[in-house]
Amino acid sequence: MSPLRVTTSLVVSVYLVQSGLPAWLQTPSWFRPLTRTLSGFVTHHQGLGLFLVIFAEELGIPLPAPGDVAIAWGGYLTTTGAIQLPVAYLAVIAGATIGSFCLYSLSRRYGHPFLVRFGPYIGLYSDRLERAERVFRRWGPWAIIVGRHIPGMRIVLSAFAGAFSVPARIFVPSVLVSCTVWAAIFLSLGRVMGIHSRLLFRLLPFHLLPLAILLIVIAYGLWLAYDRAWRRRSDARRAAAGKPPPAPGPQAGKASS
User: Does a structural domain hold residue 90?
Assistant: First the structure.
């Protein structure tokens, strides 16, 4: 049995298990019209609809379901003749590339000054920004190609690539390489799953996303309070030992310039 067919069986099994969970963990009736609107938009607008959905997601616009699900649905539509497979494939790649480049361009213009100005308030001090910039400059292509396949990281990577001034000649080809693999995987998944692709819209409780974000914010706030207290103790120990405070790093120089 092929890996895609195994994945299809797993998705169906998870959906059946989820049907027996408490009601608050299942997709509520009020949320389903949103997902139907998304799938209907792709169905009625075909390649253009698939392009616009992926473009919007890459730009950072919240959607009722991940772009991966929309691509899988588009893959199913290629088996019905509603969308030609080459058209769907090019629509996904074009939407992802253009959308991510727009976000990259905005972040390149405004991202770095924003991080330097407000980063310390959210724990992104100059030393951490410096380390992150070194990582991007050394591993930028691989970070973009591989990292974009991690759920939730595509938008983050585009924003940080722009903020850390990754050259466009590196960013765009890296996104293209990543997108060709990403599009092929989920279009193929949708073609194998067939009509069962619609289960992906209800597989995860996306209606609980605001609650998940709130919990993440609370956890991050607690970590930030601990981090600030640790830095104050570290600075106090340095002052008691007569040592100078740590250098602000090149990020401060960029901010002043």
Answer: yes
Domain count, the chain: 1
**Residue-range definition of the domain harbouring residue 61:** 3-207
3-class DSSP string for 122-169 = HCCCHHHHHHHHHHHHHHHHHHHHHHCCCCCCHHHHHHHHHHCCCCHH
SS3 call for 40: helix
Quick check: 116 and 129 in contact, CB under 8 A?
yes
pLDDT at 250: 41
What long-range pairs does 5-10 form, CB within 8 A, spacing at least 24?
5/192, 7/189, 7/192, 8/189, 8/192, 8/193, 8/196
- The answer to whether residues 133 and 163 touch, using CB atoms and an 8 Å cutoff, is no
Q: Is residue 237 part of a domain?
A: no
User: Is 256 contained in some domain?
Assistant: no
The pLDDT tens digits for 71-97 are 999 999 999 999 999 999 999 999 999
Pull the structure tokens for residue 26.
Answer: 């299942």
Q: Is 245 a domain residue?
A: no
